[in-house]
Inverse folding.
């Protein structure tokens, strides 16, 4: 049984999400940036939250027209491996199946667990962005997941 539920991000989550950002990323979002994104109409954020309110992880999606970009999937270090990241990605994949033509994301080549997670959900590598990450300096792997539409099958 899971000890968390997935909920939409709200202002009460920002401080804990900023802490997760500092744990997970070399260039973390600040609380101010997170709050600005919270009110961006093109963004959706979901949070994995324990019953006591503690934030265990989160993920963000930017969607414009029929294109989606997954912008950060992060889980507290002490909760990794428990399926939280898988559940977060699954929410956006299911959304994409209903509403989008494709999802795209970028990931560090050295982040093998994330690459395996995305491949499990059907993402494939489609390219690289040179010198994208600064610390440590790495290219970004660009991965995408295309959705077949029922109306596309009839053409």
């Amino acid at each position: 049984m899971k000890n968390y539920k997935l909920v939409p991000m709200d202002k009460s989550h920002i401080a804990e999400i900023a802490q997760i950002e500092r744990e997970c990323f070399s260039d973390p979002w600040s609380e101010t940036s997170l709050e600005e994104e919270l009110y961006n109409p093109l963004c959706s954020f979901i949070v994995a939250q324990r019953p006591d309110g503690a934030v265990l992880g989160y993920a963000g999606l930017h969607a414009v027209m029929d294109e989606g970009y997954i912008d950060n999937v992060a889980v507290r270090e002490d909760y990794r491996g428990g399926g939280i990241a898988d559940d977060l990605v699954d929410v956006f994949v299911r959304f994409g199946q209903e509403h989008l033509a494709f999802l795209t994301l970028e990931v560090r080549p050295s982040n093998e667990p994330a690459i395996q997670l995305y491949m499990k959900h059907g993402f494939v590598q489609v390219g690289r962005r040179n010198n994208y990450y600064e610390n440590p300096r790495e290219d970004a792997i660009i991965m995408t997941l295309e959705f077949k539409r029922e109306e596309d099958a009839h053409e």
Observations:
- Strands lie at 5-8, 43-49, 55-64, 67-75, 102-107, 124-133, 138-146.
- The chain is about 30% helix and 35% strand.
